[in-house]
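Minimal example, chain plus S-adenosylmethionine.
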Amino acid sequence: MVAAHRGRASTGPEAVCNDPWALRLAGPEGEALSRRWDEHSPSMVLWMGLRTRYLDDCVVRALDRGVRQVVVLGAGLDTRAARLARDGARFFEVDQPASQADKRERLSRFDGYPLDAATFVPCDFERDDFVRLLEEAGLDRRAPTCFVWEGVIYYLTEEATRSTLGRLASEFDPRSLLVFDYLNTRMAKASPRLREEDRAMKGIIEELGEPMQFGIDDPTPLMLECGYRFLRTVSFDELALQYTGTYARERFFRFQAVALASASEELTLW
Ligand SMILES: C[S@@+](CC[C@H](N)C(=O)[O-])C[C@H]1O[C@@H](n2cnc3c(N)ncnc32)[C@H](O)[C@@H]1O
C-alpha cells in the first residue's frame, strides 16, 4: 500500500518524488489498497510522496557530506539502495524476515533491479539485537551512518521505540543522522477528538493487521531522554509548501510529521 502511494506520487506532471520501482513492487493488490484511501484522505498520496522526497533529500545530503553508510530500518518495499546508490556507499535494509522474503520474491519477478544494492539484515525490533545484526552484516559503528526510519515507529511499542532510539544515539558514531516520521497521540491512540476522516484512515490500517500503538506530540523530551542533542521537525504542510509551493487548509493531514536528529551533528544548515 505504501509503495503504491509512493509510486502514484512518482507519476504524472505533479510528481513530487521519483521511485520508478514502487508501482511494480506494489502490484495490483497494493494499488487497490492505495486507491481505497482516496475517498477518506485524498492527500495521502501527496503526503507519502513528500515524505519519501524529503527523506531522499536527507540521504542525498548525508552522502554529499561524506557519509558512506545508510541503514533503512523497517525497509518494507523501500528502493533507496537502488535509487540513491553512490560509489563507496553501503546500504543496509533491516526488516522483519517475512517482509524481506516477500520483497525479495517481488524483486525477483522483474528485470533490472540491482538486487545486490542493499545488504539485507533480517531483524524484529521487538526481539532481536539490531546493533549486533548490523555489525555482523558489515556495518562499521565508528563511521557516521544515515539511518532512515520511515513509516515504522507508530507500529512499535513505546518501549521498543525508546530502546531503539537510545541505541541509535549511543552505540553508533555520534555524527550519525536519523530521519523518521511520527504520528501524534490523538491518531495513535484514537482519541475521541480524532476527526472522522482520520478515524476512517486508522480503521483501514488496523483492518490490514498492523495497529498503530505509539504516538508523539512533542519529540523534544523523548529525543533528549534517548541521548539526542540536535533535532529538527517538519510538518506535512511545510513539506507541501517546500516541494509544491502550495498550501491547502482542507488537506487534513496534520497528525504526522518528520524529524531529523543527531547526537553530535549540528543541523543548523540542514
Ligand atoms: C508501513 S511499512 C513501511 C515500510 C517502508 N519503510 C516504507 O516507508 O515504505 C512498515 C514496516 O515496518 C516493519 N516493521 C514493523 N514492525 C517491525 C518490527 N517489530 N521489527 C522490524 N520491522 C518491523 C514492517 O516489516 C514493514 O516493512
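Residues 2-3, 74-78, 95-96, 99, 123-126, 150-152, 155-156 surround S-adenosylmethionine (CB under 6 Å). The chain is about 45% helix and 15% strand.
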